[in-house]
Amino acid sequence: MFLLHRRLPSFARTTLLYNLMEPAVTTTTTTSSFVDGSSRLSALAQQLRRYKPPPSSSFDDDAEETQANQETAGKVVSQVGFQESIAPIPKDPERFKPKRAAVLICIFEGDGGDLRVILTKRSSRLSTHSGEVSLPGGKAEEDDKDDWMTATREAEEEIGLDPSLVDVVTYLEPFLSKHLLRVIPVIGILRDKNKFNPIPNPGEVEAVFDAPLEMFLKDENRRSEKREWLGEKYLIHYFDYRTGDKDYMIWGLTAGILIRAASVTYQRPPAFIEQCPKFKYPKMVDKHTYMP
Hints:
The chain is of the alpha+beta class. The chain has a single domain (4-266), classed as Nucleoside Triphosphate Pyrophosphohydrolase, CATH 3.90.79. The chain is 20% helix and 27% strand. The protein has four helices and twelve strands, in the order E-H-H-E-E-E-E-H-E-E-E-E-E-E-E-H. The protein is globular, with a radius of gyration of 19 Å. It starts with a strand and ends in a 26-residue tail after the last helix. Residues 1-37 and 56-91 have low confidence and may be disordered.
């Protein structure tokens, strides 16, 4: 287990996951080949490579469906508090197409043989979502050829994780953040954790730590909060986690992604009611996109 803290400089970058609004990129599956690694991780890699997210679906193009999507889009903007919330609903639904980002769910085998996932605590000096726990990741850039490249590039920039150490095995269904950011979770396996020496980017990351992946299926040190959005009731999950003398809270989008990742990895549902919302989305959003 590792945990690093750095004194932060006076400046801080603000390009965090929930604020990233860049054009979408095309996703293609890319994996690396490894010779070393435990037999358990090799078996896990084979299992996860067989996982296929539900296919994307398209909406009908008739006028009634288009109008309904535009009305829903207007409500989405109003609910998340964008400045455009007071403006008329535009006729161009492209305005509501979610922007793309990717996060890396990097799994490795702990000293006790358990599966663990790498997490970060954002800088407390950032202007938005400061001090919150997140997965390494961020916005898609123009040169990123797929979500694998986005996730591993951002992980290298944020915590110094060399992409060549990560065996990317699958993608999960996209998640939709409250700011209409379409987040693609990328699952990768770190075969040799001893080759990874975390180097947090002081402008973005205050700490790097790891947690057992299975904890996101257990009803321990967990609580939930009921919320309602666009007429849909759903739960926000909070997980309290302590490592060494540090306490962390893992919640919201990050918790929702990790619950799904743990369910796919361990091939069983969580021991609690997940209650994901099923909103009506703008036309360009897949029906499988979640709003945690």
